[in-house]
Design brief:
Elements lengths: L1 H8 L12 H8 L3 H13 L3 E4 L3 E4 L9 H9 L3 H23 L2 H12 L10 H19 L2 H9 L1 H15 L3 H19 L3 H38 L1
Antiparallel strand pairs: 1-2
Helix pairs in contact: 2-3, 5-7, 5-10, 5-11, 6-7, 6-10, 7-8, 7-9, 10-11
């Protein structure tokens, strides 16, 4: 039970993921199937897993629901909080990049390269929701490589909020092809620093990436405000 619990905590089994069958777990841990059954019952009592009739045992989907739906809706409805979240991402993703470079294992780096390569290649992708989903997976893969369970679960708990923030940013940046090209290069620089096992450079690359996005979004907002003022003057005339 403790071993399975640890695997849930460290991310080996994700929220919503189906656990292997009792027979497989019994072989894995070299114990009897009744022992596995008892361990799962204890995990179920702790509200960590749930059994589905005829479907197996799953890690609870609500495991990472640290941000409540009402709060999520409130934050998402206020545009000014998007920049607050960008600032918070500086600390969160910078730390993930730093420790991924410091502690990552070869299999972590393979997964990170795959997550980077799986990002939509074209800068004219119309469905920003799909692109945002792929980017959230990229950042979570980086957090997994950091081997810090608190960091990992905080990022997972904010997954929906992160996706919403990223999608909003992508939609604003959609008309800025040069900026999008720079952002793609910056992500590659983050991964490059991680693969070179350079923690400080990885954190710097992550912070520069988010600072660039923040500054670009602010400039676009300023331009929009100037355009709106100009249109109002035209209407008055």
């Amino acid at each position: 039970m403790e071993h399975l619990e640890s695997m849930i905590i460290d991310g080996s089994y994700l929220a919503g993921q189906k656990l292997p069958a009792e027979r497989e777990l019994a072989e894995k841990f070299a114990v009897s199937r009744p022992s596995i059954r008892e361990a799962i019952q204890k995990l179920e009592a702790k509200n960590l897993v749930e059994r589905k009739q005829g479907g197996g045992t799953f890690v609870k989907r609500q495991l990472n629901a640290l941000v409540t739906d009402p709060l999520l809706a409130l934050l998402s409805a206020r545009p000014e909080t998007q920049f607050d979240l960008l600032e918070f991402r500086h600390a969160l993703e910078g730390m993930a990049a730093y420790y991924a470079a410091l502690r990552g294992q070869p299999e972590d780096y393979q997964a990170l390269e795959k997550a980077l390569n799986d990002l939509p290649a074209g800068i004219d992708i119309k469905d920003k929701s799909v692109e945002a989903e792929a980017l959230v997976n990229f950042y979570l893969t980086m957090a997994l490589a950091a081997h810090n369970v608190v960091l990992l679960h905080v990022m997972r708990s904010l997954q929906t909020l992160l996706k919403d923030n990223i999608q909003r940013n992508l939609e604003v940046l959609a008309s800025q092809s040069k900026d999008q090209e720079n952002i793609i290069k910056q992500r590659k620089n983050i991964v490059k620093a991680i693969l070179q096992r350079d923690p400080e450079q990885a954190r710097l690359a992550s912070n520069e990436h988010l600072a660039y996005i923040e500054e670009t979004l602010l400039n676009i907002n300023r331009q929009d405000m100037r355009m709106q003022r100009a249109l109002r003057r035209i209407e008055v005339k």
